[in-house]
Amino acid sequence: MTTLAELSEDFTSLGEVDVDHLLRLTASWSLLADLSFSDMVLVAPDERTSGYEEFVVLGQVRPNNRSTLIVDDLIGSVQASGEWPLVRQAYETGKRAVGEVAIPAIEGAVPVWCIPVRFGGRVIAVLVRLQGPLRGPASLYERAYLSIFERLCSMVSDATFPYREDTVAGPGMPRVGDGIILIDHAGVVEFATPNASNALHRLGVYAATEGKTLAETGLRLRAVERSLEYGIPAMEEVDRSSDVAILFHCVPLFDGGVVTGVVLLLRDVSDLRQLNRLVLNKEAAVREVHHRVKNNLQTISSLLRLQARRSDEHDTVVALQEAERRVRSIAVVHEVLSREPGEEVVFDEIVRSIVLLVEDTVLALHPVEIVVNGDLGTLPTDLATPLALALTELLTNAVEHAFVNFGGPDNEHVGIVTLDLSLEGGDAVAEIRDNGRGLEDDFKLDVATSLGLSIVRDLVRSQLRGSIEMMSVPYVEGGGTLIRVVVPTEMVT
C-alpha cells in the first residue's frame, strides 16, 4: 500500500514538517472516528492540476464502534472537486463546511463535515467526516461524544490537534468504547460513561462522580493534573491490588490556545497485566531451570576432574578430561540460556565461550592461536547444543593433533586454527581449518578411530541432519586440514 508520505511527494507540494503533522494526525484520528461514529478520509489538493480541481486521498480510517460506510479503499484515489465541492470550500476558506455529498454505491446523500487542517498558519489538507445513519435519536452519551468530537475538530483547524508530544490512539491505548470521563477546566467531572463507572468501581470508587473532582471521590490522578496544567497528553496506570489495574489516558481540550477540559479514556488492563506477570514468571522459571542445569553440569564436570586427579592410569585421566570438557561445552549453552531464555539463542556468545574453553583445557606443546571469522546469528536451542559440542570437539582435535611432530626439531611452527562461520540459504556452515600437518593418507571419517570424531560424525549426521567433510589441504594452498560442517537451521523432526 502506498504510504501518506509517498502520496504527498507524488501529488502535493507539502513539505516535510507538513507531512509529519499529517502523520501525527492519522496516528490519532481513530479517536475522532469513534467519537463521531463516522468514516473519515484525509485529502489534499492534487498539485498536478491547477485551481484545486482535484484532491488526492492521503488516508482513510473507519470507526470501531459503528459499521463502515465506505467499503472501498479510497487511499491514493483522486476525487474531482466538482463531486466534493465542500472539500474545496473548506480548503479555500479555512472554515468548516457542513452539508451532503453523493457517494457511489450508497443511496441518497451522505452528511459530511469538511474540516480544514491547519499547520504553520495555512491550510495543508482537509479532514472529511462521512457520517452514517444514527440508530434513532442520539442518546445522552452519543451527544456527549459528538460534542467532544466537535471540540477536537476545532482544534484540528487551530493546529492544536494532533499533539506534538504523543499520539492518543493506537494499539494498547484505551478506546472510546472502553470508557470516557469528560472533565472541565477546573477538574470537575461533567459526565462518565457506564463502562468508565464500572472501571472506577473496580478501583473502589462507588460514589457518583458527576459534579465532583476525582480527588473528592478518593481517586487522585496526577495525569489529569498534568494535562490541565500543561496542556499535554498524559497516561497513568492505577493498581488497587494484584488483580485490578486501570489505565487512564488524558487528552486535553483547547479553545483559543487555552485548556478548557480533559477527555479521560479508561481501559481495564487487569487481565493484560496478569498475563504479563504470568509470562514474566514463566520466563523466570525457565531461566532458573537453565541456571540449575548449568550448575548441575558444572558439578558433574568438577567430579570428573577430581576423579581424573585420583587416577594413576594415563589413558583413564585423558578419557575423564575429555568427558569433563564435553560436559562443560554443553553447560556453556545453558549458561547463555540462563541469561536470555527462549527458543532461540545468540550463537556468537556460545562460540566465544567455546574458544575460551578450548584454550583453557587443551594443553599443547606448541603455540596455537584460534581465530574466529563471521557469525551464525540466532539459532534454535535444539540446534545450538549439539552444534556447540561438535565445534568444541573439532577445535580441540585441531589444537591437540594438527601440529604434533610438525614444524621442525624445535617445533617453532606457530599453529593457526581458523573457525569461519556463515549462513548459506537455510544452512549454517562452519569451516575449521588449520595450518598443520594434514590428515593421514589412509584417513576415513566413516571409520574414525577416535571417540571425539565419532561423536562429531554422529551428532552432525544423525542429530543435526547435516553433513561433514574432512580433507587435507594441498601444500601449495597453505597445507593443513579443512573440516566443513553444514547443518540446516530449521531442525527436522
Explain this structure.
The structure is a single chain. The protein has 493 residues and is α+β, with helices and mostly antiparallel strands. It has four domains: 4-158, Beta-Lactamase, CATH 3.30.450; 176-268, PAS domain (Beta-Lactamase), CATH 3.30.450; 270-342; 345-493, Histidine kinase-like ATPase, C-terminal domain (Heat Shock Protein 90). Helix content is 39%, strand content 27%. The protein contains twelve helices and 18 strands. The chain has helices spanning 4-11, 16-28, 30-36, 85-93, 140-158, 194-202, 222-230, 270-310, 314-339, 347-361, 381-401, 451-463; strands at 38-45, 54-61, 78-80, 97-102, 109-119, 122-131, 180-184, 189-192, 234-241, 244-255, 258-268, 344-346, 368-374, 378-380, 415-424, 427-434, 467-472, 481-488. The strands form four sheets. It has a six-stranded antiparallel β-sheet, with helices on both faces. Strands 8-7-11-10-9 form a five-stranded antiparallel β-sheet, sandwiched between helices. A five-stranded mixed β-sheet has the order 13-15-16-18-17, with helices on one face. Helix 9 (314-339) packs antiparallel against helix 10 (347-361). The chain is elongated, with a radius of gyration of 35 Å. The chain starts with a helix and ends in a 5-residue tail after the last strand.
